[in-house]
Amino acid sequence: MIRISSQQIFSGGINRLQELNSSLNNTQQQISTGKRVNKPSDDPVAAARILKLNQELSRVETYQRNVDLAENRLKQEENALSSSIDVIQRIRELTVQAGNGSLSPNDRRSISSELQERLGQLANIANTRDASGEYIFSGFQGSVKAFEQDATGSWRYQGDEGQRVLEIDDGVTVPISDNGKDIFVRVPAAITGEHTNVATAGASISGVSLVNEAALAAEYPNSFPDDITLEVDAGGNVIATDSQGDVLTVTPPTYQSGEPFNVAGMEVTLADVVPGAGDVFTLKINEKQSVFGTIENLIAGLNSIDKTTPQGQAQYDDLIANSLINLDNAQESIILKQTELGGRMNAVESTKTFLEDSSVYSNEIRSQLQDVDYAEAISNLSFQSFVLQAAQQSFAQVSQLSLFDRL
């Protein structure tokens, strides 16, 4: 016979009541929080998996914020570049209008006035700021204004050549900025000619234009030369040499004042040069021209060039022709940057979609592991309440029993 003391009966009853009450409390907590696993002891395996899923979701949320930032910055830059193309297109239209030979000086001044306004508008676009107040085209120096006017009134780039990048997923980075120097300053310039050694008063060079790009590329398949030097020798032949000292073919070889000739795919006209006098002209081929400098030179030429002389008319015609080429090159430079931006935005959009899918999948798995089944939980709560009440009643009756009642 096993003897059971009153102390054992009381201890066993109290322990059972505590267990039932603990189970009831756990079920109540599950219903109130909506979570099946509220602490690791509820389900150690599920708790470990939930912890990893929470870490994954935290990682995804961080990258999603970066994706949103990258998307906003790239869209802002794209809008700024689109606006700048519109401004340059209007400036080009004004330049074509300025080339009309029937314009009066007042007409040219009127065009110059609008060009000045458009120049300021383009500078404002190049000085666009983001939501945090940083200049988007200043490279790493976001607090520095991208373009400022110097003492002469010319617009100069003030930032650096840095490019900011942002990580939008593990091992995936995307550039979110471009410096204004690469976009607005380093623009391929029209080929121009200069009278670098003046021996004959009134001698000039004009009509410089690239008429056969394939011929220039064939002459210099690897890279264009920095410049080409032209000189008329005592026999009246045009001698052309490049920066490496190589002599180039000139067609026709004999100089005739005011008549064009070709060299390395370029057409050039020299006038009033005395053969053998020592006049030297330089063709600048591989130059860069800021779009702001192009517009500033155009404005200055409209206001200052005297078209009443043949030399002035030739200078004015060259100004219009070169300005159009430079403006076209500036537009092409910006369009190329827009194309590059489009590729970045596609990458950002793809990453955004991937992160969204990853977030949805992780949330679904976590929900399966963590969320409570309310129907089951309420049923358990009802059953546990019934069992607890029965246990309490049973314990109350047992606790009142005594051997003295049988004596």
Automatic annotation (TrEMBL):
It is found in: Bacterial flagellum; Secreted. Signal peptide: none annotated. This is Flagellar hook-associated protein 3 FlgL. Gene3D superfamilies: f41 fragment of flagellin, N-terminal domain. Keywords: Bacterial flagellum, Cell projection, Cilium, Coiled coil, Flagellum, Secreted. One of its GO terms (biological process) is bacterial-type flagellum-dependent cell motility. Residues 327-402 form the Flagellin C-terminal domain. One of its GO terms (molecular function) is structural molecule activity. Residues 15-140 form the Flagellin N-terminal domain. One of its GO terms (cellular component) is bacterial-type flagellum hook. InterPro entries: Flagell_FlgL, Flagellin, Flagellin_C, Flagellin_N. It comes from the Bacteria.
